Amino acid sequence: MIEIRDLSKRYGSVVAVDGLNFDVLPGRVTGFLGPNGAGKSTTMRMIMGLDRPSTGSARIDGKPYRRLRDPLRRVGALLEAGAAHGGRTAYHHLLWLAQSNRIGRRRVREVIELVGLDSVADKPVGEFSLGMSQRLGIAGALLGDPDALLFDEPVNGLDPEGIHWIRTLMRGLAAEGRSVFVSSHLMSEMALTADHLVVIGRGRLLADTGMAEFVQRDASSYTRIRTPEPERMRQVLDAAGIQVRTGADGALEARGPRQRTIGELAAVNGLIVDELSPQAASLEEAFMRLTAEAVEYHAGDLPEGGRR
Ligand SMILES: Nc1ncnc2c1ncn2[C@@H]1O[C@H](COP(=O)(O)OP(=O)(O)OP(=O)(O)O)[C@@H](O)[C@H]1O
């Protein structure tokens, strides 16, 4: 389990992370979302002891990273691809990592197989494609068989097969009871991978909630209703204080996920209902609405020439 308490990081006058509090719990994939510059990478670096918090703490199993014994056995991270020495083979890169953490050769072979690099294990990593480098980074993260795993933008630049593979891997790691924390800019991918979401903007916590709740709570979620008596249904809903509009195809659209209440109102009033279905906003819509205020630079704010 990863615990973030009152965590802040300042770089000179820039407050990159501003009083964050949240937990990354075992048994689920927690997605980490935020616009560019929101402070995601800084938070992950502080969890991994690569940056020191200005105030507050990031703890893994109750201890800051620097105080963990055999850290690779507690937490594994994919923070940036291509960090391996280009002249070393994949096998030797992993063996070097393993030996510096008192992990045996057998585990090196195991993780190579697990990430599907068997056929290229003896190639220099400098010749690896982006997808192969990502797999190698993941092999390194898994080496100590840790309970907590961090992935910063793991699907960046990967093809659909690679993306699918990483998604399945992360879901499998969570199903084994591990705490999986992953950042990504690909909303459609995050919607398929994460169970829980932590959303930050300008270093501050904006949401810490279940994926389904996050999307349903968005103002653009609605309940679609088709009935032979739309006018009477509209009156019943109006009287109950439920906002309703008529959609493009003539179906009624009531604000929010209200199918239970609407079903009961229809039953009490003897109204026939042909369709009553929740229509959730997409994760992207919900994310854009929540973070609109917190985007560091809107496209329209860029100075002439389009550069910051
Ligand atoms: N080493 C550093 N020195 C100075 N400022 C930094 C440093 N690292 C990050 N920052 C600043 O801190 C803020 C947060 O950056 P960070 O990279 O953590 O955001 P992010 O959410 O990971 O962004 P992105 O989605 O673009 O990767 C930004 O304003 C960034 O410019």
TrEMBL record:
Matching SMART domains, A to Z? Answer: AAA
Q: Does Cell division appear among the keywords?
A: no
Query: Per its UniProt record, what Pfam families does this chain match?
Result: ABC_tran
- Report the InterPro entries cross-referenced here: AAA+_ATPase, ABC_transporter-like_ATP-bd, ABC_transporter-like_CS, P-loop_NTPase
- So where does this one cross the membrane? none
ABC transporter domain sequence ranges? 2-227
Q: Which GO terms describe its molecular function?
A: ATP binding; ATP hydrolysis activity
Keywords for the protein's UniProt record, in alphabetical order: ATP-binding, Nucleotide-binding, Transport
> What PANTHER family does this protein's entry cite?
ABC TRANSPORTER, ATP-BINDING PROTEIN
Q: Which family does it belong to?
A: Belongs to the ABC transporter superfamily.
User: Under which name does UniProt file this protein?
Assistant: ABC-2 type transport system ATP-binding protein
